[in-house]
Amino acid sequence: MKRILILALAQALVLASLTAPAVVGLSIDVRRLLPNGDEAGTLAAIISAGSIAALVANPLFGWLADATRRRRTLLVAGAAGGFAGCTALLWAPCIGMLTVAWISAQVGYNMCFGAINGLVSAQLAPADRTRAAGVLSAVTVLGALPGLAAAAVFANHRSLMVLAVPAAALVAIPLIASRLPGESASATRRSRLHVPIRTIATSAFGLAVAARFVIALELAAGLIFALYLFTDRWHLGTSAAVRLVSIATLLGAVGIVGGSCAISLTRLRVIAPRVLLGIGLGALALGTAARGLAPTPTVFLVATFIAGCAIGTGFTASRSLAQSALPAADSGLGLGVLNAANTLAPAIAPLLAGALVMPGIIPWQTDGYGAMYLLLTIPIALCAAAIPISRPRRSRSLVSAI
């Protein structure tokens, strides 16, 4: 478990390194370079470009880490590349170079993620899969906190705001890598330089990816229109609605961490991942529907906390299920694909949520946002229904041969 905690620290440092530039740094740089232009549209385009880079880089470097057995090397190289990209953000002379710098930072830090995914599964006992999954799921939320703290503390010092955490990661990650057991390059490395489609095409792994995507989609879509729901349904002023949205976001985050840690630190971790996933999806459907039907803001907040706990449970269970469905030798690629679902869902969520807002579908409500929450329960229920038909890794692959 000590090795998992060390890797969780590395993952937290990587996440934190991306947080301050994404939340504040890029906004400042876009305004600096484009004072009288379409700042919002330009910022959205840059962030989207970085997300696409992350979507490709995470599984790509996971596959490379698996194939070369140089996971520690890639971990350190990724920290250096990410730091270089963040440094380039500070001196980008134009929007084009700013975009290239942000893509470089995303590629570098996703190299770290690919290496971490492989290192987590190496020598991981089956009994520890769910515990490790819970720790790493909690880190997905907690890891953002140092970056947010750096943005707040160094608000008047742009360089420190952007580089404080990446610099810490640049120093700490090589030390972390030195504490990890080494890996010798395989004698058959050349023969392994192929994409192991058969190992990631099982129904069990497909279920894990689908569930992760649906859960991440609900997480991203669930609060997109919360401000409008508060103002339209309960006729609150903007300041009161903003305060409640902030509280709801905090409660959801606490629920995610709490749900993940509760499984990791208690006997709940011995429950089969499929069962945990079913519990998480069921609770998420309940919390999502309750938000859609909430008669008061208090009920909405309680339902948001329930949904957060369910998301933490679902994240933990889906990662544990994916790890049990993957050979350790190909875990970097497989978990990279799982992480890609997290990246893709927020990109789709705004468009999907907007399409699901259907005023009048709930006769006793004046807003259409309740319909969005209710309709979001459909893909959650479909994933839950697929759990009984998923099969473990030893079952026949979804493709017979590659």
Automatic annotation (TrEMBL):
Domain Major facilitator superfamily (MFS) profile span(s) in chain numbering: 204-402
The keyword ATP-binding is annotated on this UniProt entry: no
Subcellular localization, as worded in the UniProt entry: Cell membrane
Signal sequence bounds: 1-22
Keywords for this protein: Membrane, Signal, Transmembrane, Transmembrane helix
Pfam families tied to this protein: MFS_1
Taxonomic superkingdom: Bacteria
Membrane topology type: Multi-pass membrane protein
Transmembrane annotation, as ranges: 41-61, 73-92, 98-120, 132-154, 160-180, 200-228, 240-263, 275-294, 300-321, 333-358, 370-389
Record-given protein name: MFS transporter
Species name: Microbacterium nanhaiense
